[in-house]
Every structure is written in C-alpha cells, then in structure tokens.
Specification:
The chain is mainly alpha-helical. It has helices at about 5-30, 35-40, 45-60, 60-65, 65-75, 80-100, 110-115, 120-150, 155-170, 175-205, 210-220, 245, 250-260, 260-270, 270-295, 295-305, 330-335, 340-375, 380-410, 420-425, 430-440, 450-465, 495-520, 540-555, and strands at about 485, 490. Helix 8 packs antiparallel against helix 20 and helix 13 packs across helix 23. It starts with a helix and ends with a helix.
Length: about 550
C-alpha cells in the first residue's frame, strides 16, 4: 500500500475512535455506570443503530474473507447463508423478541435460569464462554489478521496484536459505544465492498461497466451461479441441496440469530417496536450482502480462470503451493487505486473490529451477570460489575490472541475455507441449543432434565456422527443424498444434514423425558407468553412480504 492508503486508514481510525469517545463521555454524563446500561445500552439504541450493529457484528473476517473465499470455490450458492438469514431475522423479530422482552431477559443464561433452573444456566454460561473465545473470537482475530497482513504486508503477529488492542478500546466503552460506532463502520464496510465489486466487474467487462461485467460472469462462469447443488456436485458436502431451504440451514440460522447472546444483545436494549424495526432493517441489509461478500469471490474466480490480468494465480497460492480461497478478497483489494485501497483496508478492519468488540462485550456480559454475580459476589455494586466486565474483556482477548498465535494456522490456514470451518464446528452445538430454546419458548411441559439432554446429548450425538464414517460404511445413504464421498473418498454425512439428525434426536429425547417427568410429578417453569404479543405492525408485515418476494425471485432465477 502507498502513503495515501495509510493516510485514509488513519483518518478512519481517528474518526471512529473520536466518535466512540464522544458517545462514551456523553452517555457517562447522562447516567451512572449501571451494569445493564454498560452491557445492553438499555433503551438508547435506535432501530437503525440496532440493524447496523447487527450486521457490523455479524460481518467480520469470516464473512469478508471466508465468504468471498467460498464464493471463489462454491459460487453463488454460499449466499444461502445471507438470504436465508434475512428470512430468519423476520421470524426472530416476530416470535423470539416478544418472549425475551416480555420476560425482561437480558442474557441467554438468564433465560435458561428463568425457564429451566440455575444448573442448566450455569452449564450453558460456561459453555458459551468457551465457544465464544475458542471458536468465534479466535477465528475472527486470526482470519482478520491474515487478510490485513496479506493486503498491507505487515507481519501477521503484529496484526493480531493491533486488532486485539483496537477492539479492547472500543469494547471498554460499553454497548452504547459499540452500537453507535457500528453505524460508521457499516458505512465504510458497504462502501469498500461496493467499490471492490465495481472494480472487478469493470475489469471483467473490459471497461464497459458493471452491468456488462455481471452479464459476462453469468454467461461464462455459469457453473458458479446455482443456488441449489445436486448430489453429484463436488461441493455438495458443504451445501447439500435442499437442506439450505428446508433443513439444517434453518437450524444454523435460528440458533445463531435467535439464541445467540452476541447477536440478540443488540435488540434486547430496546422496546419491541424498535427492536422489530431494527431486525427488519438488518434483514434488508442481509439481502444486499452477497453483492459485497460473494460476488467479489466469483469475480476473482473468473479473472484467474480467464487470465484477464490484474490478479494472478500466484496471489492465491500459499508458501507450500496450495491454492487458498481465503486469499481471493485480499487479491481483489490489490486492484484498487491508491486511496481507495486504504478505504477498503479501513472497511475490512472495521468489520473485524466491530465483530471482535461485540463478541468481547457478550463474553463480559455472560461472565459478569451470570457467573461472577451469582457465584463469586452476589452483592456486587453496579460499578463493581462494570469493572469486572472490563477485566473480562481484556482477559478473553488475551486468550484469543494466544490461541490465534498457537493453533490459528493449523485450524484455518492454508487451503481451508475459514467460513465453512466455523459453520461446521458451531453446528456441533447449535441443534441442541435451538431445541432447548424452541421447546422452552412454546411448550410449558419441557423440563430441566430435557434441556440438559439437548445440550449434552446433542453435542455427543454431533461428535458421534462426525466420526461415524470411520467406523461404518455410509455409502448406502448416497442414493437419498445423505452421504457423499469426501476428499479421501470416504462417504460422510454433510454437516448440514447432521444438524437435522441431531436436532430430531434432541427434540424426540426432550419430548419423552418431559412427558415421563410430568407423570412423576415434576412441575416445569413456563414463560409468560401471550398470543397477542406476536402481532406486528402493518409496515413490518409489508417489509417482511417484500423480503419473501425477493427470496422467491432469486431462487427462481438461480435455482
């Protein structure tokens, strides 16, 4: 990068840091350092801030880098994660948010404590902390540093440390600072992504514009414009056919968007109408995201395939000679002229820092309110809780830095799709979590033992199914599309289909355990649920129908 690129980057850094500090000082003068205010920005986030914050925290290294890499390898089909998420956000807004807000639920372990018991809540609180630090925080930090290092040429270790420090600074201001600075970061993120896409499409069209470039892509890279894979497709194992529409994709998305402290925390600090508007706004943004995170990967695929210049195959090859899809987006950034490259560099950094900050804040929230306050210091003052939360942010980030340096390369390094790696291993736990939440919401007979079965039993079932191909020949399931040969030629169940199987195991187990315990006289704790609270405004209904119509049109056009 040139001097002008670094200038643009530092201007961005100063603007975001200054604005965040101003928000912090302003909000600090308006209220005492209350824990709920620090962790949730209670009642102070507007619908547009909620929507922008949701997207900024969702889109990070694993999206910008990983999803562009998956676009390079898989094509438009990976957009299912984005477009089905838009439909998921509507469901969360209609059915999940009213339950959370009606019952004054601020954290996911708090929900589990109210609905089940403190034992279930504590087990899940510890579990979530481990998942957030070991899988999410570490992967975002490593993949983000990998991309920044590739663009700037800066040593990856320094990038890891710098990202961690920047994220800590943003996070220590609390949820309000994160929520409002996210608005700036989403702007730079979207702008940088659009500029990169424009450059690529214009290159493909020979300077005739993005419309002509997109038409060339559709006609000459048509193999990358299918949303539903057939079972003979080599990428079927990643996106197994109709499972993206009626199977495991729903479990992954509903668990992520509806049962995830890191995500729902943004909307829990608002009234129901504001939260719903924020989620609907986020849904519209999700419909646009493939333009920014998938289309660039397809464009790089075509540029390299046709040897159009600007990007060479060598830019996508690792030191050991392996083609690395995760290098597609950084390679695309290299096409940008001076200044614009710095802007896209800033946009990428914004995405990484926003996600790191949001994740660290959620870790602090769960540790402070659900572990520290309940186990170590029940009488802690509000100021004490905020200080403990800040310490938790720093400690969790230090753990993530160490993990990134020690095991990051082995888990997400050369040739691996970082995005798919995260999806698969998060999928070990999401079926059980989703079953526990959905039964807890809508079936009052669900008992605490049933919830524990879903959590622990679901994880064990996921591990068994993962290693089952090493013990049993699963080729007989190939006829129905439930097993495909992996790189080693061994038939295994696609992870998205494994999630469906595990969810069904959890659901059936929860049903029979609950029925048995009720016959034994066990009384479960139901939540306050009123059918009237699921009613929506006319404007929300119209917005939701527009999104559904867009989904139908897209899947009809690119099936």
């Amino acid at each position: 990068m040139k001097g002008s690129d670094y200038l643009v980057f530092f201007i961005y850094f100063i603007v975001v840091a200054s604005y965040g500090y101003w928000v912090y000082r302003k909000k600090r003068q308006e209220s005492v350092s209350a824990s709920h205010d620090y962790f949730l920005a209670e009642g102070s986030l507007t619908w547009w801030a909620i929507g922008a914050s949701l997207i900024a925290s969702n889109i990070s290294a694993e999206q910008m880098i990983g999803m562009s890499g998956s676009g390079f390898k898989l094509g438009l089909a990976i957009s299912a994660y984005e477009w089905m998420a838009a439909a998921t956000l509507i469901i969360v807004a209609v059915f999940f948010m009213p339950v959370y807000l009606k019952n004054k639920i601020f954290t996911m372990p708090q929900f589990l404590s109210q609905r089940y018991n403190s034992k279930v809540a504590m087990i899940m609180a510890v579990f979530w902390l481990m998942l957030y630090i070991v899988v999410n925080l570490m992967s975002i930090l490593y993949l983000g540093a990998l991309a920044i290092s590739g663009i700037s040429g800066i040593n990856i270790t320094f990038c890891i440390l710098a990202l961690a420090v920047f994220a800590i600074v943003i996070t220590l201001g609390g949820m309000k600072v994160i929520g409002f600075t996210d608005v700036i970061q989403v702007f730079f993120l979207v702008l940088g992504g659009l500029v990169a896409t424009y450059i690529a499409l214009n290159l493909i069209s020979g300077g005739k514009g993005i419309g002509a470039g997109f038409n060339v892509l559709q006609s000459k890279a048509s193999e990358h414009f299918h949303l539903i894979f057939k079972k003979d497709n080599p990428n079927y194992i990643d996106l197994p056919g109709l499972s993206v529409l009626i199977g495991g994709m729903w479990i992954a998305n509903l668990s992520y968007w509806g049962c995830n402290q890191y995500i729902t925390q943004r909307a829990l600090g608002a009234s129901l109408p504001v939260a719903r508007k924020g989620l609907l706004f986020a849904a519209f943004l999700k419909m646009l995201m493939p333009i920014i995170v998938v289309l660039p990967g397809i464009a790089v695929y075509y540029i390299v395939k046709e040897n159009l210049g600007g990007i060479t195959p060598d830019q996508l090859v690792t030191a050991s000679g392996v083609q690395d899809p995760n290098k597609a987006y950084p390679a695309l950034i290299s096409l940008l002229p001076a200044g614009l490259k710095g802007l896209s560099f800033a946009a990428l950094t914004a995405a990484i820092v926003a996600s790191l900050a949001g994740k660290a804040n959620s870790i602090a929230t769960i540790f402070t309110l659900d572990i520290y306050k309940k186990v170590f210091n029940a009488g802690a003052s509000e100021r004490n809780l905020v200080n403990v939360g800040k310490i938790a942010v720093i400690v969790s980030m230090l753990f993530a830095v160490l993990l990134s340096l020690i095991v990051g390369d082995a888990l997400m390094g050369e040739g691996k799709q970082g995005f798919q790696y995260i999806q698969e291993y998060t999928g070990f736990v999401s079926p059980g979590i989703f079953a526990m939440f959905i039964f807890g919401f809508f079936w009052k007979k669900t008992t605490s033992s049933a919830a524990l079965f879903a959590t622990i039993g679901g994880f064990i079932a996921s591990v068994v199914l993962k290693f089952l191909p090493g013990w049993v020949d699963l080729s007989s399931l190939h006829a129905i599309g439930w097993s495909v040969p992996n790189a080693a030629g061994i038939y295994e169940i696609p992870f998205m289909d494994r999630m469906v199987i595990v969810f069904l195991i959890c659901a059936i187990g929860m049903y029979f355990i609950s029925i048995y315990q009720h016959k034994k006289g066990v009384v479960s704790k139901g939540l306050e649920v009123d059918p009237g609270m699921f009613k929506t405004s006319t404007s929300f209904a119209v917005g939701s129908l527009i999104i559904v119509a867009m989904l139908v049109a897209l899947y009809s056009a690119y099936w």
